[in-house]
Structure formats: structure tokens, C-alpha cells
Write a structure and sequence with these properties.
2 domains; elongated; five-stranded antiparallel sheet; Thrombin, subunit H; Chitinase A, domain 3
């Protein structure tokens, strides 16, 4: 009999974030994500609820309201500058640049456009303002060890799965 996802089960998942308008895959993982279900609350409650009772091989699709996660898109976080004002190592689309505000708080900006004369960076999360679906595939399920339950994830791994939606930044 196949295990199903329940509290205190160690679960490994792959996921993709799909743009509902274009069908494009916006985010995917290069390696499975492991966590202890019902212990580690790093995934949204709606995703966790959908995973209960699922088996290896099951795929779930959960629409995500990016406005709840990131708020409205803020055009004041989009800057265009002359390319000669930007160090060469940052002159690549997709490059992440970390800057600090006047309070010393860091924020990631992504190079989104570039031509011979200008470069544009955007401090909004790339998923902000998009209509997306979170597609998760269950890869494995097993009993979690006591140590994994204490940690909320695999021993020696970072159980903070916030990277799921931050990875695209």
C-alpha cells in the first residue's frame, strides 16, 4: 500500500510556477524540495491543504494570488539608467543586483531590459502582478525521523522553502 501525505511525513516535491496567461514556466527547481508535512509551515496553507492525502506521482495545481504574496506591482521600483553608469558585471538580463535603501535594508533588483544605451532594473518580485498556478509533483513520501520532525526538513538541509517563490527574484 502506498504512503499518503499526512502530518509528520517527510515529503519530496518538484514544482513549477506557470503563467496562466502565456502558459510559460516562470520558476522551476533544479533539485527536489524536502520538508516534513504539518510541521514546517513554509508553504502556504492552501498548498499544504491540497497535499494532504496525495500519493507519489500525484500532481496538484494550486492557483496563487500574487497580490496577497507581494502586493500590487510598484512601478517606482523600476529604474532605467544609461548603460555607462552600470558596472559591466551587471550588464546581463536576468542578473540580480542587491541594493540598500536609505535605512540600509537590502532589496534585490533584476536586470530586465538592456540595449546599447540603457539598462533597466526592476525591484518587484518577478511573479508580482502575474496570474500564476503552482504545479507540484509528489516524488517521495516516508516517515520522518525525530530529528527531521524537530528541524521541519531534511537533516543538513535548509528547511526554509521560501525560496520557492523568492528564487525568481
Amino acid at each position: 500500500m502506498s504512503d499518503t501525505i499526512a502530518d509528520e511525513k517527510f515529503v519530496e516535491l518538484n514544482y513549477r510556477v506557470i503563467d496562466n496567461k502565456t502558459g510559460d514556466v516562470l520558476v522551476t527547481v533544479d533539485y527536489p524540495i524536502g520538508y516534513v508535512h504539518g510541521v514546517n509551515d513554509v508553504m502556504s496553507e492552501e498548498v499544504t491543504k491540497e497535499l494532504y492525502g496525495k500519493k507519489v506521482g500525484d500532481i496538484i495545481e494550486v492557483p496563487i494570488d500574487t497580490k496577497l504574496l507581494y502586493g500590487e506591482r510598484d512601478e517606482s521600483l523600476v529604474f532605467t539608467d544609461r548603460i555607462e553608469n552600470v558596472p559591466e558585471e551587471y550588464r546581463e538580463i536576468g542578473m540580480t543586483i542587491t541594493m540598500e535603501n536609505e535605512k540600509g535594508e537590502p532589496r534585490n533588483f533584476i536586470v530586465t531590459r538592456m540595449d546599447d544605451q540603457t539598462l533597466t532594473v526592476d525591484g518587484n518580485n518577478p511573479l508580482c502582478g502575474r496570474d500564476v498556478t503552482f504545479m507540484l509533483e509528489v516524488l517521495s513520501i516516508r516517515e520522518a525521523t525525530d530529528e527531521e520532525i524537530d528541524l521541519g526538513g531534511a537533516v543538513g538541509a535548509d528547511p526554509e522553502l521560501n525560496e520557492i517563490l523568492e528564487r525568481a527574484q
